């Protein structure tokens, strides 16, 4: 499946929820930047891009079913939705299962299981944190402990520069 097709399908799935659309596009952009900055191969980049697009696929269901969409409930509900999203596409089943696993663990910070998981964790944390800062929460002074990529750390430093005392 082309990444652009996945984005269009996920935007449609978002049913006009502009926060969800903005969030997925922001995570997608940072995940792509981290993956490319780390020199990951094309196949891994493709999996990262698709995982970034669908990483919050369970949010609408969680909001309807539970009244909110905390990370652990997203993880619990996401795998079947990911499989359904990619059903009938040309994505190999192995790729779909890898995406389903990553999306089902995108709020599980330890252990980090490979490059795809790490990049999605870092990109989603950066976006969630920047959204929080825009909503009035204080900016972080250091990245989350699971950050390990050079590119993710550089993005953190650029997004949340130290405030002069």
TrEMBL record:
Coiled-coil residue spans = none
Under CDD domains, the record lists:
HDc
- The entry's protein name is HD domain-containing protein
Q: Which Pfam families match?
A: HD
Instruction: Note the InterPro entries from the entry.
Output: HD/PDEase_dom, HD_domain
Start and end of every HD domain?
22-113
Q: Where in the sequence is the signal peptide annotated? A: none
Query: In the record, what lineage is assigned to the organism producing the protein?
Result: Bacteria, Bacillati, Actinomycetota, Coriobacteriia, Coriobacteriales
